[in-house]
Amino acid sequence: MKKSPLRLMLTIVGAAALLGGCERLGIPDPTKTAAQAESEGKAIGSACRHAGRAIEDCFTLNPNASKAAVFAGWKEMNDYMAENKISEVSPQLPPPAPPIPPGTKPAKAKRADAETQDEDKTSQDSSKEDSDTDEKPRKRRRASE
Questions:
Q1: d(CA 81, CA 111)
Q2: Contact 37, 69 (CB under 8 A)
Q3: Distance in angstroms (rounded) separating the CA atoms of residues 45 and 70
Q4: SS3 letters for the chain?
Q5: Which residue of 5, 49, 53, 88 lies most exposed, with the fewest beta carbons within 10 A?
Q6: Can you tell me the distance from the alpha carbon of 34 to that of 28, in angstroms, rounded to the nearest whole number?
Q7: What pLDDT shows up at residue 6?
Q8: Is the pLDDT of residue 20 over 80?
Q9: Contact 62, 45 (CB under 8 A)
């Protein structure tokens, strides 16, 4: 069986069309991913410099960013600010809290747990007082587990 040239040409065109749509399938392109990471790192570095942060602080606050890209952005912004005599802008928000190691509860959660336990104790105490004053005890439903 011999394939006709027309059929072969249609197969090639169809395969090219399918492979051209790989971006829509969610297959990441390594060059685009690297370029995006590079540009994000430069943006982070320039924002840190504009905010007056030291480069070490910038590295600490952004551990997942490429250090080379962050430094390049920081340096570019430093040169730009010196050239145009732009002053630093102080950040309006406080610096973010350091990351919490896994397996430990944050302080707010511990306080919230303590408050709910206190509320549970007070509600149990008040329910005991209510049950003392009631003439007929109420039937309680058991929670199914």
A1: 45
A2: yes
A3: 4
A4: CCCCHHHHHHHHHHHHHHHHCHHHHCCCCHHHHHHHHHHHHHHHHHHHHHCCCCHHHHHHHCCCCCHHHHHHHHHHHHHHHHHHCCCCCCCCCCCCCCCCCCCCCCHHHHHHHHHHHHHHHHHHHHHHHHHHHCCCCCCCCCCCC
A5: 5
A6: 10
A7: 84
A8: no
A9: no
pLDDT at position 125: 53
Q: Which residues contact 50 (CB under 8 A, 6 or more apart)?
A: 77, 81, 86, 88, 89
* Burial annotation 38-58 (CB, 10 A radius, 16+ → b, else e): bebbbebbbbbbbeebebeeb
CB under 8 Å to 37, separation ≥6 — which residues?
65, 66, 69
pLDDT tens digits, residue range 22-55? 666 677 788 888 999 999 999 999 999 998 888 8
The span from the first CA to the last CA of the chain, in angstroms, equals: 69
Compute φ and ψ for 38, nearest 5 degrees.
-65, -45
Residue 135 has a pLDDT of 60
